[in-house]
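Quick one:
INPUT:
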């Protein structure tokens, strides 16, 4: 008699577990039509009809019948790739189930321990029986899977090198057993996993992924990733990585004596042998990057994504001691190392998660050294448009809370202190009860009015929705803000801020990019207010017409540049992404192209004495200074003295009469100090320091003031959802307008079914040069840039107008993004009137 192999038993257990999961929890996909899935039954049933919710016991009975039938996989839900219950689900269901019928054989079978275990949806690391090799590798992970309490006197903590060696050995063992012949279908499998399919849907390929979903290699590859004998071992390795990373974070948070490297250990006077417990993930990345070939590396990423979906419980908070957390840590780090987020993206997450719920849990997420971390802390698994949606929802919830608190304050005062005269409460009452952050500014004095009204605003006010009243001094009620005035306000404000007369920014004529003006004589509080204004634009979702280099957004996101040493002692590789100075240097090629080329040349002259000195040029206010170190290596305090060496050429720049100590530049204090030569072994340090000086050092006081204002208006951790390039797109938008995309997104209201006149309008606009098309966009919406979502995210409405005067021009309402278009007798008249309206309406709010 034939006996079932361990592989057959494992497959049966997986099928039972899968069926129980989909019967009880469902897959959560709106596209599901599977009758044996809770979600599919809900989608197929009319909204007014109730459906039965299976208990776990009932689901076991149905699963046994399905698996025991001739076609055991017929009713598997293609969307159900993970369990939606936590690891205590089986224990809870045992206590919550009602009493069962002891006369029913099916219910008796469903209650037996063996069936319970076979149908269990909890995550175990079950190695197939008899596979001694895999069992050996799993046993090596046990020291990393055991809970370690760092608060004990002598915690048994493995060194980072030992932990990395154990985890990497298990990962390499898993990959070595993958059949090579099925990995050729990796691209299709990658798309299948990313879109949340357990198997390719019959007759409908994954969008844009592959043309032949019936290819047997695809199913074999997916089967191996889900049912392969090494699946449990890789899951255990990822869990070990998760627990190790969490342990290192706890040690760092506790400032534990073991959290030092060997060179620092001598200062501890400890009897324990020196061992470095830091950097397990770094070592693991290095080991695998030097070991895996081009075929195994993508396989590991696909397998990791598959395991994440299998072990994820559907929550936006991920426990740090789970396989799902280890998979996220690995995917996020790989995206940073390879600069390729496409390989780790999981498109299925956006459909499985509720946007508002994700935003709410982000706002109330646990903080440092907690036992869970939010899913948005791993932004690489989301598309940038998805992250932008979460970001704006988070800000909207903050606005709604601040707005509701102001409304409640009004209601409480009227209810309990109605006899108090408003005048007795003064400004405090106004601050508490105004539901918006209201600015009333005139066009003729917009910069000063804005600074006066924003200066020393309370934090609670800054979180409210922004509203602007924009007009002349005697007509501030011209524009009642419903959206368009905000855009107009920031457009005018940016024009003033970036003007040469403001002495705040300087614009490179060659690149067109702007940056802080070195040695600016403007008071630092102005830079603080500028930072707050940029934060308000981002917070309120306004795209503004600015152009900054990538280094600007690098510094804005990491927020650590003020702590970078002026002359770092350690040599840093040019391509390293782990050091913040390298992130700045990687971004100076667009803002300082000539200096970038010179620094690259210097790095190529490692064996040449170039005669360089540790001094950096600073041209400001008619002077040219050569800044050097005075004492120590840091320039991160407002009152720190900066050394200046006059040995360099002046080339016509003015001499400083009375010494550099007499220079009174906001945020700077100078003193004479000689420079020293740069050694051949210091070229890497010199290049990093020079790049840091260009992007941060020469405008350090302005940066520090700007950051103080910026982080008053926006949460620092929210910006971590974006890369510097993505944040640049969010802030600046795009200067390119796709008129065809705008045409498809536009709404036409009030026209008859015959849209010939509308087609004529768009045909005219399509023939215009792009600059004129952007003028049309500004005329209708006040926007000078296209937001990150493209022209399809712009509100553009066209309505017919009745013109009693044949000379009447088209008009617009930028508040509502509406163009009122009179009916003209010919296309030539329509085009002429449009161009006139756009020309007259280029400045000012209201009608054109």
């Amino acid at each position: 008699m034939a006996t079932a192999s361990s592989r057959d038993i494992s497959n049966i257990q997986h099928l039972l577990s899968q069926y129980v999961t989909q019967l009880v929890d469902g897959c959560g996909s709106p596209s599901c039509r599977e009758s044996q899935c809770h979600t599919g039954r809900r989608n197929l049933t009319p909204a007014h009809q109730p459906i039965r919710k299976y208990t776990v016991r009932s689901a076991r009975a149905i699963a046994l019948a399905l698996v025991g039938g001739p076609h055991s996989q017929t009713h598997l839900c293609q969307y159900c790739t993970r369990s939606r219950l936590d690891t205590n689900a089986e224990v809870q269901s045992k206590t919550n189930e009602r009493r069962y019928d002891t006369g029913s054989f099916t219910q008796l079978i469903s209650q037996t321990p063996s069936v319970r275990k076979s149908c269990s949806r909890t995550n175990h690391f079950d190695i197939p029986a008899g596979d001694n090799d895999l069992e050996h590798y799993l046993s090596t992970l046990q020291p990393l899977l055991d809970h370690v309490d760092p608060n004990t006197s002598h915690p048994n903590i493995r060194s980072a090198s030992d932990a990395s060696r154990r985890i990497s050995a298990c990962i390499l063992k898993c990959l070595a057993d993958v059949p090579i012949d099925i990995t050729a279908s990796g691209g299709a499998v990658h798309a299948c996993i990313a879109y949340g399919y357990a198997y390719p849907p019959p007759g409908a390929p994954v969008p844009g992924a592959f043309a032949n979903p019936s290819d047997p290699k695809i199913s074999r590859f997916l089967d191996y990733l889900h049912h392969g004998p090494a699946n449990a071992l890789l899951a255990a390795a990822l869990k070990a990585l998760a627990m190790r990373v969490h342990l290192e974070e706890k040690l760092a948070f506790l400032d534990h004596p073991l959290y030092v490297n060997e060179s620092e250990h001598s200062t501890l006077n400890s009897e324990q042998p020196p061992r470095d417990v830091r950097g397990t993930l770094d070592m693991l990345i290095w080991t695998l990057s030097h070991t895996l070939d081009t075929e195994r590396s993508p396989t590991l990423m696909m397998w990791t994504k598959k395991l994440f979906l299998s072990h994820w419980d559907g929550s936006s908070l991920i426990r740090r001691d789970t396989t799902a957390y280890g998979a996220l840590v690995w995917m996020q780090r790989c995206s940073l190392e390879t600069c390729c987020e496409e390989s780790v993206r999981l498109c299925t997450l956006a459909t499985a998660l509720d946007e508002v719920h994700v935003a709410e849990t982000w706002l109330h997420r646990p903080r440092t050294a907690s036992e869970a971390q939010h899913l948005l802390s791993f932004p690489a698994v989301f598309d940038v448009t998805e992250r932008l949606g979460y970001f704006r929802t988070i800000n909207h919830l903050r606005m709604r809370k601040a707005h509701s608190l102001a409304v409640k304050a009004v209601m409480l005062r009227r209810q309990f202190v109605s006899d108090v005269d408003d005048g007795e409460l003064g400004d405090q009452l106004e601050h508490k009860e105004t539901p918006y952050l209201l600015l009333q500014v005139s066009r003729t004095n917009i910069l000063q009015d804005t600074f006066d009204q924003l200066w020393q605003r309370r934090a609670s006010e800054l979180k409210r929705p922004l509203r602007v009243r924009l007009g002349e001094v005697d007509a501030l009620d011209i524009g009642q803000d419903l959206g368009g005035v905000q855009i107009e306000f920031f457009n005018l404000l940016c024009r003033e801020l970036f003007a040469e007369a403001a002495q705040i920014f300087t614009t490179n004529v060659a690149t067109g990019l702007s940056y802080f003006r070195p040695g600016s004589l403007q008071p630092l509080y102005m830079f603080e207010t500028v930072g707050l204004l940029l934060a308000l634009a981002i917070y309120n979702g306004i795209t503004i017409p600015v152009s900054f280099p990538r280094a600007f957004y690098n510094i804005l996101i990491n927020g650590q540049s003020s702590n970078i040493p002026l002359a770092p002692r350690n040599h840093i590789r040019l391509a390293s992404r782990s050091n913040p100075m390298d992130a700045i240097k990687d971004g100076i090629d667009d803002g300082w192209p000539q200096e970038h080329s010179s620094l690259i040349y210097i790095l190529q002259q490692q064996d040449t004495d170039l005669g360089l000195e540790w001094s950096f040029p600073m041209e400001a206010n008619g002077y040219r200074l050569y800044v050097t170190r005075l004492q120590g290596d840091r320039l991160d305090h407002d009152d720190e003295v900066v050394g200046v060496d006059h040995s360099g050429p002046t080339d016509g720049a003015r001499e400083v009469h009375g010494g550099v100590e007499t220079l009174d530049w906001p945020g700077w204090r100078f003193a004479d100090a000689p420079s020293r030569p740069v050694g051949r072994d210091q070229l890497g340090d010199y290049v990093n320091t020079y790049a840091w000086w260009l992007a941060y050092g020469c405008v350090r006081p302005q940066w520090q003031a700007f950051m103080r204002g910026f982080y008053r208006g926006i949460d620092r951790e929210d910006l971590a959802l974006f890369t510097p390039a993505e944040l640049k797109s969010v802030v600046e938008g795009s200067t390119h307008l796709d008129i065809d995309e705008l045409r498809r997104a536009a709404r036409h209201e009030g026209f008859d079914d015959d849209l010939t006149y509308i087609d004529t309008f768009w045909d005219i606009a399509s023939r215009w040069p792009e600059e004129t098309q952007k003028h049309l966009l500004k005329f209708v919406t006040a926007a000078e840039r296209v937001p990150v979502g493209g022209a399809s995210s712009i509100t553009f409405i066209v309505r017919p107008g009745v013109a009693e005067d044949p000379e009447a021009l088209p008009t617009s309402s930028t508040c509502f993004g509406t163009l009122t278009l009179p009916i003209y007798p010919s296309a030539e008249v329509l085009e002429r009137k449009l161009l006139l309206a756009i020309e007259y309406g280029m400045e000012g709010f209201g009608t054109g």
